[in-house]
Write a structure and sequence with these properties.
Elements lengths: L1 E5 L3 H9 L5 E3 L2 H7 L3 H11 L4 E4 L5 H12 L5 E6 L2 H12 L3 E7 L2 H9 L4 E4 L1 H6 L4 H13 L7 E4 L5 H10 L3 E4 L1 H6 L4 H17 L5
Parallel strand pairs: 1-2, 1-8, 2-3, 3-4, 4-5, 5-6, 6-7, 7-8
Helix pairs in contact: 1-3, 4-5, 6-8, 8-9
The structure holds erythose-4-phosphate.
The site of erythose-4-phosphate has 11 residues, from helix 7.
């Protein structure tokens, strides 16, 4: 499973990139607004830190303007994945960009029907939002399982399932069990994966027992 981080904060991205476990980055207009930084400037900085796909999202909703924004963003760096919303205009732009070899991440997916359309439009990634579905008492993870199963039926679909709107480690683990290709999560949730109380208590005991031996490895 590829690990993307869902943030536009440079320090958080650098920290995770240093772990060697980071495969890409996703941003959205809300995350850019939260960063308080210039959109292009922050995306270019991220693209230099991470070799893998960096998702940068269009802001317009009409086809003509969205296409112009997408063409502009696509030229910013080699590893850009242009992010478009799952709308008719978004999928038209997706098809145009994909036909020209640009990676597209289709975002705001909440149904299997939408996921089929994105695959047919040649999306590199489909982003189903599990947390936002859970928030309205629908089963976000069931959507992941259904999309993975549908895509598996069609070898000519090359779209990767990018699990988005992740709120906790179980969203990641359950998606991995289902065979989702990629997940994107806030740094805090990724860090939670390291944690287990038995790891912490076990390590404390090893450190204490080792100190009692009076030895040094170096
Ligand atoms: C994905 O690309 C989105 O940026 C993100 O996962 C949305 O998550 P949220 O529902 O926590 O805002």
């Amino acid at each position: 499973m590829k690990f993307f981080v869902d943030t536009a904060e440079i320090d958080e991205i650098k920290d995770l990139a240093d772990s060697g476990l980071l495969d890409g980055v996703t941003t959205n207009p809300s995350l850019i607004a939260k960063s308080g930084r210039d959109f292009k400037e922050v995306i270019l900085e991220i693209c230099k830190i991470v070799d893998g796909p960096v998702s940068a999202e269009v802001a317009s909703t009409d086809y003509e303007t969205m296409q112009k924004e997408a063409d502009n963003i696509a030229g910013w760096a080699e590893n850009i994945a242009v992010k478009v919303p799952l709308t008719e205009a978004g999928l038209k732009v997706c098809k145009n960009l994909s036909d020209n070899g640009t990676m597209v991440n289709v975002t705001l997916c909440f149904s299997t029907g939408q996921a089929i359309l994105a695959a047919k439009a040649g999306a590199a990634f489909i982003s189903p939002f599990v947390g936002r579905l859970d928030d309205i008492s629908q089963d976000g993870l069931q959507l992941i399982s259904d999309i993975v199963r549908i895509y598996d039926n069609y070898p000519d679909f090359h779209t990767e399932v990018l699990v988005a709107s992740i709120r906790n480690p179980m969203h990641i683990i359950d998606s991995a069990k289902m065979g989702a290709h990629v997940m994107t999560a806030p740094p805090k949730v990724i860090k939670q994966l390291y944690k287990h109380p038995l790891t912490e208590s076990g390590l404390a005991a090893f450190v204490k027992d080792w100190a009692e031996t009076g030895q040094s490895i170096l």
